[in-house]
Amino acid sequence: MRSGPLVGLRVLEFAGIGPGPFCGMLLADMGADVVRIERPRSGPVPDPRFDVSARGRRTITLDLKLKADVTRALDLADRAEVLIEGFRPGVMERLGLGPERTRERNPGLVYGRMTGWGQHGPQAHAAGHDANYIALTGALGAIGPSERPVLPLNLLGDYGGGGVFLAVGVLAALSHARSTGQGQVVDCAISDCTAVLMAPIYGMLAAGQWRDGRSENRLDGAAPFYNVYQCADGLWVTVCSLEPQFYALLLQQLELPATEYPYPLDRTKWTELGAKISEIMATRTRSEWCRIMEGTDVCFAPVLSMAEAPEHPHNRARQTFVQIAGVTQPAPAPRFSATPAAISSPPPTETAEAEIFADWTARQGGA
Questions:
Q1: 99, 112 in Cβ contact below 8 A?
Q2: Which of 2, 18, 75, 80 is deepest in the core (most CB within 10 A)?
Q3: pLDDT (mean) for 308-329
């Protein structure tokens, strides 16, 4: 049973990897009826339970090299309000499924295109992955110690700058389409969108409040009051005491004199204070520091492993993680007061072609 603010929205997703499926998951979590077109597979099929970003979908397998299957895909696009795809520029056109053809048949269709480099530009047709895209925006160059950049998993580009922006883009275009009857193409490039995520940092750089380098700023590991520290047991904690009242409380908890390290702390004393905090943090275990600081305005949290995170009392109280088909995974977010989001089903184990066509045909023209 679907629930959430997007119940009644029909989304056609062409299977891909990374940000496209993540966008489909977000829309499905919020109630959309997402049908995913899979390509025929050869060889053993992996256990679908672990493909978490495929949850909440129904799937249909089509061979888009076959004219009959392209016709089926077009029939589904006729009945959809949103279509999302993540091929390189020109691929969907060569398949006969590009935006001109689909929107000629369905003028109100919102056509979401997810790529790394965008639909045009010198790099548009080149292969790439998350780190390549965020490298070109200045984001990767700003993350990590001074010696070398550090890869922030693929959270920043694929998911933050890709899947989330695609979801926002298609929903914005959907609002316009529903009020005007006019669909449009949403060109979502990870390189563009990651640059948008960097907007506050670029603002600080322009204002002279940010140094263009790594480990030289308040938020990149240089400041002792916004950093990670190792405890006596080898585990780690975060301290983010940026504001004066939080900074004062941090010094109080660490029994450090405020007169010696006044706020705002002179940059020349950052290294000295960092060494002091490191020394003090190393005297207690992570659990001991949690008992002292967790829940206070120091702005503190333990650095948890992925195995530990679902068991933390705060995450348990908010049910931030759930189990679906025996697989622990994040629950839908954000939360809605009137139309709660939910995971309607685990990742599909088989295609549902007859059911999908019968359902979408019966509901053509409205949910």
A1: no
A2: 80
A3: 98
Residue 365 has pLDDT above 70, yes or no: no
Rounded to whole angstroms, the Cα distance separating 131 from 123 reads 14
CA–CA dist 157, 297 (Å, integer):
31
User: For residue 120, what are the contacts with CB-CB under 8 A and spacing of at least 6?
Assistant: 89
pTM for the model stands at: 0.96
Whole-number percent of the chain with pLDDT over 90: 93
Active-site residue among 129, 176, 312, 359? 129
Residue 222 has pLDDT above 80, yes or no: yes
361: its two tokens? 């045909």
Q: Give, in order, the Cα–Cα distances in Å from 318 to each of 26, 134, 366.
A: 19, 32, 35
Q: Report which residue type is found at 189.
A: A
Q: Is 120 a catalytic residue?
A: no
What mean pLDDT is predicted for residues 332-348? Answer: 96
**Three-class SS state of 160:** helix
Among residues 69, 158, 192, 220, which one is catalytic?
Answer: 158
The sheet that has 185-189: what strands, in order across it? 57-61, 33-38, 10-14, 82-85, 110-115, 185-189
Q: Is 158 a catalytic residue?
A: yes
Compute the distance between CA of residue 255 and CA of residue 277 in angstroms, rounded to an integer.
10
Residue 347, both tokens: 């990742």
Residue 9 near residue 367, CB atoms below 8 Å: yes
Q: Where are the beta strands (DSSP E) in the chain?
A: 10-14, 33-38, 57-61, 82-85, 110-115, 185-189, 226-230, 236-240, 300-302, 321-324, 327-330
The pLDDT value given to residue 367:
43
Set out the domains of the chain in order of their start, with CATH numbers.
10-197+332-362 (3.40.50.10540), 226-308 (3.30.1540.10)
Residue 54 near residue 21, CB atoms below 8 Å? yes
- The pLDDT value recorded for residue 364 is 60
